[in-house]
TrEMBL record:
<feature type="binding site">
    <location>
        <position position="20"/>
    </location>
    <ligand>
        <name>5-methyltetrahydropteroyltri-L-glutamate</name>
    </ligand>
</feature>
<feature type="domain" description="Cobalamin-independent methionine synthase MetE C-terminal/archaeal">
    <location>
        <begin position="435"/>
        <end position="761"/>
    </location>
</feature>
<dbReference type="InterPro" id="IPR006276">
    <property type="entry name" value="Cobalamin-indep_Met_synthase"/>
</dbReference>
<protein>
    <recommendedName>
        <fullName>5-methyltetrahydropteroyltriglutamate--homocysteine S-methyltransferase</fullName>
        <ecNumber>2.1.1.14</ecNumber>
    </recommendedName>
</protein>
<keyword id="KW-0028">Amino-acid biosynthesis</keyword>
<dbReference type="GO" id="GO:0032259">
    <property type="term" value="P:methylation"/>
</dbReference>
<dbReference type="GO" id="GO:0008270">
    <property type="term" value="F:zinc ion binding"/>
</dbReference>
<feature type="domain" description="Cobalamin-independent methionine synthase MetE N-terminal">
    <location>
        <begin position="7"/>
        <end position="320"/>
    </location>
</feature>
<feature type="binding site">
    <location>
        <position position="652"/>
    </location>
    <ligand>
        <name>Zn(2+)</name>
    </ligand>
</feature>
<feature type="binding site">
    <location>
        <begin position="440"/>
        <end position="442"/>
    </location>
    <ligand>
        <name>L-methionine</name>
    </ligand>
</feature>
<feature type="binding site">
    <location>
        <position position="739"/>
    </location>
    <ligand>
        <name>Zn(2+)</name>
    </ligand>
</feature>
<dbReference type="InterPro" id="IPR038071">
    <property type="entry name" value="UROD/MetE-like_sf"/>
</dbReference>
<dbReference type="InterPro" id="IPR013215">
    <property type="entry name" value="Cbl-indep_Met_Synth_N"/>
</dbReference>
<keyword id="KW-0479">Metal-binding</keyword>
<keyword id="KW-0808">Transferase</keyword>
<keyword id="KW-0862">Zinc</keyword>
<dbReference type="GO" id="GO:0009086">
    <property type="term" value="P:methionine biosynthetic process"/>
</dbReference>
C-alpha cells in the first residue's frame, strides 16, 4: 500500500519572483490593489497545481503577501492599536513597513531559519482583547484552492495558536491565558472550515519543538487549546517542524487530540544530524511508541532545508524503520521535514548554468515533491531507495575538511585571541568625539548598478570598464557621506549583490545558482550559495574597493566583511562534514582577508554576524556546543588584527539578548545592533550584563520607508545615554541606522541620514554644554581624530584613520 503524501509549504515568490516584482510595483504606486491580488493569486495557484501534478495528494495552501505571522495577526484581529485607523492592505503593509506615527512591528528570525517574521505584540487592543477576526483572505484562498485542486486536495494552513502566542516575547500573560484569548478566532475559523468540508486544517506549531515546550505552562496551553479546537469536528494536522520533540514533551504531545501529528525526522538544523546519522525523532518513537490507532503520523522525511538530493534513500530508510515498528502504511503520510519555502524553486530554471558535476545531485522545491511521492512507495523490505548515498554523493567533492580543522586547532589559543585585551587596545584605535556617526555598510542599489553587474556577467562590459563605473559609484557614495558629515565612511557596496553571495563567488568550494532565489522577508529574496567542497581563500576579495574609497577621502573607511557563521548559516552547507568544520574553513579564509585589508592600511574592519543566533538549536541544552565553535570561528577570523585595528561586528533581527556571554566572548571592539523595532530589548540586556565595549544601537528602522525626524533620533540618543549602555560614555556610543541601506531609495536615505547626523551633532553640543566642555565639533565637520586637524586630538596610534 502506498502511503499518503502532503505538503506543508512551498516557495511563495513564484518561479521567476513574480510576486516580488508585483509587490514592489504596488508599493511604488505602479500597480493597483486588484492587480497585486491577481498577481499573488496566479503565483499561488501555479504553485498548488505544480504540487498536485507531481502526485502530492493533499496540498498545503501556502501563500502570503508578506509573512504568515503577519497574516495571523490580521485574521485573528490582533492588530496593534496604532494601526487601527487604517484598513485593508494599508493596515497590513503598515504593520510590516511602518506608517506615519505608527512604527512597524518588530521583526525577527523564524525559529532557526533565515526567514524573517513579524512579531505579534501582546497587547493587541485595549485590554488585550482581540478585535473581530477577519477571515476573508483565508477563506478566499481556500475557495481558489478548492477550485484549482478539488475539495479533497486543498488543505488550509495557519500558524498554530500556541506558537503565535509565544512569538509575542514580552507578553504579560502566562501562555495558557494568552492562547485562551486567541481561541475564539481559531474556533470561528474552524466552524467556517467545517461548513466548507475541508479534509483537514494544518496548524503549524514549531514552538512545540523548542525547550520552552517543556515548561508546565506551555504544556497547559497546548492541552487546553487543542482540547477546545478538537470540538469543531475538523480533522487537525499538528505540524511540528525545525527540530525533534523534547524527551519530556513527546509522551504528552503524541496524545494531543489531533488527527495527524507531523514530525521533523531530519534534525534541528543547527546540529549535525545529517552528518552524524543521528535521528532523534525516530529514536523517540522507537523508545516510546506512537499511538497510530488514534492518529496518523506525518513523517517529515524529505529534507526541506537542504538542496542535496536524497540519493541514498534516507527518506525510505526512515519510513522502513517506522513500518518495522508496527505503524501500518495507512497510518503514515509522507511530507518534507520543514516547509519547502526555504528552498529555491526548481533546478530546471538553472538551464545550462548547472555544472555537470552537480547534475542530479541537487534537488530544489519542485524536485523535493518527487522525493516525497517516491518515498511514499516505500515497502517494509525495500523499494524507493536509490543506490549510492547522500553522504557518498557529497563525498565526490570531499576534500580535507577534518584535516583542515585539525590544522587550525593546532595553531593554539593564540590564533583565537587578540594580542591585547580590549581595555589596552581601545586606546590605540580610532579616537572619536561624542556620538560618532557611521552606517552599517550598504547604500541603495539602483537599477544602473544592477545593470552594470549584468553586463559584466554577460561579457558586454570589460572588467576595466566595470571597475571604472563602480569606482564612480564609490566616489559618489563617499562624497555623499562627506557632505552629510558622517564620521566613519563605507564604500557603499555597489559591487555586491548580496553580503554572502559576493564572498561565496570569490571563495573556493562554493557554487552559486542562477535562479536559486529564496524569500528572506516580504519581497526580499536571496540566493544562498551551495557549499560543495573545501572552502579556500583565493586572494584578496575586498581590498580593491577599500583602496578606491579611501583614495577619495581623508576620513576613515571601514573594510566590510561578512562573518564565517553568517556565510555558513546563509548557505546550503555540505552534509558529509560537520558545520563546525565548514565554519572553521570560512574563518581561515576571512582571516586571510582581514590581514590583506590591514596590509592596505585599513584600520577599521567590520565583520558582520547577523546570523549568529539563528543557527542556534531550538533546544537550549544544545546551545553550548554550537556557540563554542561559532564564537571560535569569529575569533579565528578576527584575532589576526593588530591591536590598533578596530574590529566592528553587526547583529540584527534576532533575539541576541539570549546569548550575551557568547557575544561578549566574540571580543569585537564595536557592536552595532538593530534596535528600532525591538523595544530596546538588546540595550537593556547589554546594560544588565555590564557589556563594556563600544555600542552602536540602530537609531532608525531601515526596513520602513518612513524618514525619522531629528527630534525622534535625538530622543533615541538620549535614551541610550540614560540607559548607561557602553558605560555611559558618549564617545563609545555610535550613532548609526539599524542595518544596511541597500533596499532603500536614495531620497529617503539622504533625508534619514541627514537627520541622523544633525541629531548626533545637536546631542553632542548638548552633552558638551552640560559638561562645560568647549571646542565641540559642529555638525558637518570632521568628527574623528586625524580628520584634517579637527576633532579632539590626533590618532593615538598615528595611523588609525586608514591613510
Amino acid at each position: 500500500m502506498t502511503m499518503d503524501t502532503f505538503t506543508i509549504g512551498f516557495p511563495r515568490m513564484g518561479p521567476h519572483r513574480e510576486l516580488k516584482f508585483a509587490l514592489e510595483k504596488f508599493w511604488k504606486g505602479a500597480l493597483s490593489e486588484a492587480e497585486l491580488l491577481a498577481a499573488a493569486a496566479r503565483v499561488e495557484e501555479e504553485a498548488w497545481r505544480r504540487q498536485r501534478a507531481a502526485g502530492v495528494q493533499r496540498v498545503g495552501l501556502d501563500g502570503t503577501l508578506y509573512d504568515q505571522v503577519l497574516d495571523t495577526i490580521a485574521w485573528t484581529g490582533t492588530c496593534p492599536p496604532r494601526f487601527q485607523h487604517l484598513s485593508g492592505l494599508s493596515r497590513y503593509f503598515a504593520m510590516a513597513r511602518g506608517a506615519p506615527s505608527a512604527p512597524a512591528l518588530d521583526m525577527s528570525k523564524f525559529f532557526s531559519t533565515n526567514y524573517h517574521c513579524l512579531i505579534p505584540e501582546p497587547e493587541a487592543a485595549p485590554g488585550g482583547t482581540p478585535a473581530a477576526p477577519e477571515l476573508g483572505p483565508l477563506l478566499e484562498r481556500l475557495e481558489r484552492g478548492q477550485r484549482a485542486l478539488g475539495a479533497e486536495a486543498a488543505v488550509p494552513m495557519v500558524v498554530g495558536p500556541v506558537t503565535f502566542a509565544l512569538l509575542a516575547r514580552s507578553s504579560p500573560l502566562p501562555p495558557h491565558e494568552a492562547v485562551a484569548r486567541l481561541l475564539p478566532a481559531y474556533c470561528l475559523l474552524l466552524r467556517e472550515l467545517a461548513q466548507r468540508r475541508v479534509p483537514e486544517l494544518q496548524l503549524h506549531e514549531p514552538a512545540l519543538a523548542t525547550s520552552q515546550a517543556a515548561e508546565p505552562g506551555v504544556r497547559q496551553a497546548f492541552e487546553a487549546a487543542y482540547a477546545e479546537l478538537a470540538k469543531a469536528g475538523v480533522p487537525l494536522n499538528l505540524v511540528v517542524p525545525y527540530a525533534d520533540l523534547d524527551e519530556q514533551v513527546y509522551p504528552w504531545a503524541v496524545r494531543l487530540p489531533v488527527a495527524t501529528l507531523t514530525l521533523d525526522f531530519l534534525g534541528g538544523g543547527a546540529g549535525d544530524c545529517a552528518c552524524t546519522g543521528a535521528n532523534r525523532t525516530l529514536a523517540l518513537i522507537t523508545a516510546h511508541g506512537f499511538p497510530h490507532a488514534e492518529r496518523r503520523l506525518g513523517a517529515g522525511v524529505v529534507d526541506g532545508r537542504s538542496v542535496w538530493a536524497d540519493r541514498d534513500g534516507t527518506a525510505a530508510s526512515i519510513l522502513r524503520a517506522l513500518l518495522h515498528l508496527g505503524i501500518p502504511p495507512s497510518r503514515l503520510a509522507v511530507t518534507s521535514s520543514v516547509s519547502l519555502q526555504h528552498l529555491p524553486y526548481d533546478t530546471a530554471l538553472e538551464g545550462t548554468h548547472m555544472p555537470a558535476r552537480l547534475e542530479g545531485r541537487l534537488a530544489f522545491a519542485v524536485q523535493k515533491l518527487d522525493e516525497i511521492v517516491a518515498a511514499a512507495a516505500t515497502t517494509p523490505n525495500g523499494g524507493a531507495a536509490a543506490a549510492g548515498g547522500q553522504r557518498a554523493a557529497a563525498a565526490e567533492v570531499d576534500g580535507s575538511a577534518a584535516a583542515a580543522v585539525a590544522a587550525l586547532r593546532a595553531l593554539g589559543p593564540a590564533a583565537y585571541a587578540r594580542s591585547l585585551p580590549f581595555g589596552e587596545r581601545r586606546g590605540l584605535q580610532l579616537q572619536t568625539h561624542a556620538f560618532p556617526t557611521t552606517t552599517i555598510g550598504s547604500f541603495p542599489q539602483t537599477l544602473e548598478v544592477r545593470r552594470l553587474r549584468q553586463k559584466l556577467k554577460a561579457g558586454t562590459l570589460s572588467r576595466a570598464e566595470y571597475e571604472a563605473a563602480v569606482s564612480g559609484h564609490i566616489a559618489h557614495c563617499v562624497g555623499i557621506q562627506e557632505g552629510l558629515g558622517i564620521d566613519v565612511l563605507v564604500h557603499g557596496e555597489a559591487e555586491r549583490t548580496d553580503m554572502v553571495e559576493y564572498f561565496g563567488e570569490k571563495l573556493g568550494g562554493m557554487w552559486f545558482s542562477a535562479a536559486g532565489w529564496v524569500q528572506s522577508y516580504g519581497s526580499r529574496c536571496v540566493r544562498p550559495p551551495v557549499i560543495e567542497g573545501d572552502i579556500a581563500w583565493q586572494g584578496p576579495m575586498t581590498t580593491w574597493e577599500y583602496k578606491v574609497a579611501q583614495s577619495f577621502t581623508s576620513r576613515p573607511v571601514k573594510g566590510m566583511l561578512t562573518g564565517p557563521v553568517t556565510i555558513l548559516n546563509w548557505s546550503f552547507p555540505r552534509k558529509d562534514v560537520s558545520r563546525e568544520a565548514q565554519a572553521a574553513q570560512l574563518a581561515a579564509a576571512l582571516r586571510a582577508e582581514v590581514a590583506a585589508l590591514e596590509a592596505e592600511g585599513c584600520r577599521i574592519i567590520q565583520v558582520d554576524e547577523p546570523a549568529l543566533r539563528e543557527g542556534l538549536p531550538l533546544k537550549r541544552c544544545l546551545w553550548a556546543p554550537y556557540l563554542a565553535w561559532a564564537v571560535d570561528a569569529f575569533r579565528l577570523a578576527t584575532a589576526v588584527a593588530a591591536p590598533g585595528t578596530q574590529v566592528v561586528t553587526h547583529l540584527c533581527y534576532s533575539d541576541f539578548e539570549d546569548i550575551l556571554p557568547a557575544i561578549d566572548a566574540m571580543d569585537a571592539d564595536v557592536l552595532t545592533i538593530e534596535n528600532a523595532r525591538s523595544g530596546d530589548a538588546m540595550i537593556k540586556a547589554l546594560v544588565g550584563s555590564s557589556y563594556g565595549r563600544d555600542v552602536g544601537p540602530g537609531v532608525y528602522d531601515v526596513h520602513s520607508p518612513e524618514v525619522p525626524s531629528v527630534e525622534f533620533i535625538r530622543s533615541r540618543i538620549r535614551m541610550f545615554m540614560a540607559s548607561g549602555v557602553a558605560g555611559g560614555r558618549a564617545d563609545r556610543v555610535w550613532v548609526n541606522p539599524d542595518c544596511g541601506l541597500k533596499t532603500r531609495g536614495w531620497a529617503e536615505t539622504l533625508a534619514s541620514l541627514r537627520n541622523m547626523v544633525e541629531a548626533a551633532a545637536a546631542e553632542r553640543v548638548a552633552a558638551a554644554g552640560a559638561a562645560g566642555v568647549q571646542g565641540v565639533v559642529a555638525a558637518g565637520k570632521k568628527g574623528v581624530a586625524g580628520g584634517e586637524g579637527e576633532g579632539e586630538g590626533g590618532c593615538a596610534n598615528g595611523g588609525c584613520c586608514g591613510r
